[in-house]
Amino acid sequence: MIARKWKWTLSALVGLTGSASFAADAASSAQPNAMPAATAPLHLPDAPTRAGIPGTTPSSATALLTGECCLPSDCCVCPCGPPGRVWASAEWLYWTASGQSLPALITAAPPGSPRATAGTLGDPNTQVLFGNQRVNDDFRNGFRTRFGVWLNEEQTFGIEGNFFFLGRSRQGGVAGADGSIGSPIITRPFNNALTGQQDAELVSLPGVLAGTVSADATSDVIGGGFNFLCNICCNPCGRFDLITGFRYMNLRDQVSITENLTALPGSGVTPGTNIIVQDRFNTNNDFYGGLIGGYYERRFGSMFVGVRSSIALGLSHQEIGINGSTTFIPPGQTYPGGLLAQPSNIGSYTNDEFAVMPEVGVRFGAQLTPRLRGFVGYDWLYWSTVSRAGDQIDLNVNPNQLAPAMPPVAGPAFPAARTNVTDFWLQGISIGGEFRF
Questions:
Q1: Maximum distance among all alpha carbons in the chain?
Q2: Which of 35, 59, 85, 392 has the most CB atoms less than 10 A away?
Q3: Which backbone phi and psi does 32 adopt, to 5 degrees?
Q4: Which residues pair with 146 in a beta bridge?
């Protein structure tokens, strides 16, 4: 009886501790030399290692490359979002811009055209050689880099910086003639502010002037900034981060027109005199503003798609410079004013306006190695208020200002200084890589 109670007591203790059944107690009492049954060792999960990709286990790194990451059976071994606490990327850009508008700057007329209407706008025989078009809207190469770091182990707070530039866009035209009999008439058109009629300045006219005129329009763009990142939601297959920070962007334009003339016997100027006429229009735009936006990335196996959207609000500071001159050689005398840049508008002007700069970017890529990702993307960026050099050109001219005029000058003060503004956008594709560690 005592032995039977002892067996019941042991069986109850075993049941309370959740151990294996003690049903063999009777047998063990009958076989005192029997060995106890082997029990399976308790399995503990492996501690995360930082070999390969920081924040991942070896199995998760393998999953990234084999395309298994973020499948239902493998989510438990994938890192939250893209792996790595530090990252740097480089991209080749192929972007186009909205360009700037130019008035007609160089015109031509066939030999024998009446002097009063030769090369004037609106005359059916006038051919526009350069201008009356948008320029600097071509595709151009560029470069962009991003770099950042997560500030905590959980990768929820971080900072990043970025910088980009586009190669210079340059478009222009050149025309000229030697002033011999039968050569074309080359001119620069303007509106005569004294008569209200279309007029033109001669560059080449048989027996009067021989010369060339060149017009050149350039545009340069750079930008950058820094951001703070705060994770809003995250899972093994993707993450969404809030972006706040500072944005800077610069846009510079220049339009220049240069005449190189030689006086012929019919000009009324000593034959052989060299006359250099120059007009320069420059604009410089700087944007300074605060930015808010977000970045979402979703992974599908070893592939991923990311969307970045932001809007910056701030100040658009605009600087406009207009300059012109006419030089006679001999005697080497230079006078202020060319044709479209005269004392009435020569100078430096500034303007400050509130501006909005939204941006949207999409990229598609793949995890190439545990640390390297490659991607292609598309970006669109808009700047609400800028000054463009071509918009500052006034074709209204008071001929009394033309060199070698001396003050005071009779007539209206044209061309006039302008501070015209417009908008600006960029868009294009990119190809790049990102290294994370």
A1: 146
A2: 392
A3: -65, -20
A4: 89, 162
pLDDT interval class at 213 (50, 70, 90): very high
Question: What burial class does residue 349 get, using C-beta atoms within 10 Å of its C-beta: 0-12 exposed, 13-18 middle, 19+ buried?
Answer: middle
Examine residue 39 and state whether it is found in any structural domain, yes or no: no
CATH number for the domain including 309? 2.40.128.100
pLDDT category at 78 given cuts 50, 70, 90 is: low
Angle at 164 (CA atoms; ends 161, 166), nearest 5 degrees: 175
Residue 7 lies in a domain: no
C-alpha span between 426 and 285 (Å, rounded): 15
Query: What's the rounded mean pLDDT across residues 156-174?
Result: 97
Q: What residues are paired with 224 via a beta bridge?
A: 163, 248
pLDDT digits (tens, 9 = 90+) for 366-396: 999 999 999 999 999 999 999 999 999 999 9
- Within a domain: 109: yes
Containing 230, the helix (H) or strand (E) segment is strand 209-235
250 close to 385: Cβ distance less than 8 angstroms: no
What pTM does this model have? 0.82
Domain count for the chain: 1
Q: 38: exposed, middle or buried (C-beta count within 10 Å: 0-12, 13-18, 19+)?
A: exposed
Low-confidence winner among 43-57, 264-278, 347-361, 417-431 (lowest mean pLDDT): 43-57
